[in-house]
Amino acid sequence: MADAAFLLLSIRGEDEAADDEYAAMMRFAGLDESGMRRIRLTHRGLGYIDLTQWSGIILGGGPYNVSDDPASKSPTQMRVEEEMAGLLAEVIARDFPFLGCCYGIGTVGAAIGAVIDRSHSEPVGGVTVDLTDHGRRDPLFCVLPDTFDAFGGHKEAVSSLPGGAVSLASSADCPVQAFRVGANVYATQFHPELDVDGLCTRIEVYKHHGYFAPETAESLKHDARQRTVTHPMAVLRGFVQRYGRGAGLPVSSRVPPRPD
Fold first, then answer.
1. Which chain regions cross the lipid bilayer (predicted)?
2. Domains assigned to the chain
3. pTM across the whole model
């Protein structure tokens, strides 16, 4: 898909987790570095993003939570939140193709006035996700089974969506596993880029970040290996297939200079 130019926004400061996420996003989307470029927001500011130069934007997950106590947020997190709020205001106003994974639930949810809190957190590991009626009819989600396994782990979640947002999926402990705003702006609580190897990498990288007791890391990896997680990646593939032919410019003319 040579005419695709997607932008991945990363909030992972740890090189191992950030690079693994980037590789997984490309692999499951069917793109290489010429088709999916990356900005690590922990390393540099977002800068001006001309949406006309991109087919779509993907936001990865990470340790930030919009519901964190403001006093606990680092200057980098505060900057990232401000930059994302500005970008999402334009994305939502223009109904521009956007897929926010995990952290996207908080950022997109905050942008539309959803209630984001700690009422529906889920432990790190496998989760069984059920499509809603809207999800079964959605262009990206309709290819998924009505019920499927995914990997996740999060401290905050959407407790309530405002009117105009469409819930696409849920789980037993988390009422909003995915939603859509307009026709083209998506957010998932589960990780569509995570297979078992990717989850094990993150368990190791983030075992001292408060998601779980560090001494349980190996048992979490063992439990993850008992799950068969193959369906969520279809969301990434579908996003690229649906929007990858919309830009119409050569990739080289649509990509800003490398951030690194």
1. none
2. 6-254 (3.40.50.880)
3. 0.91
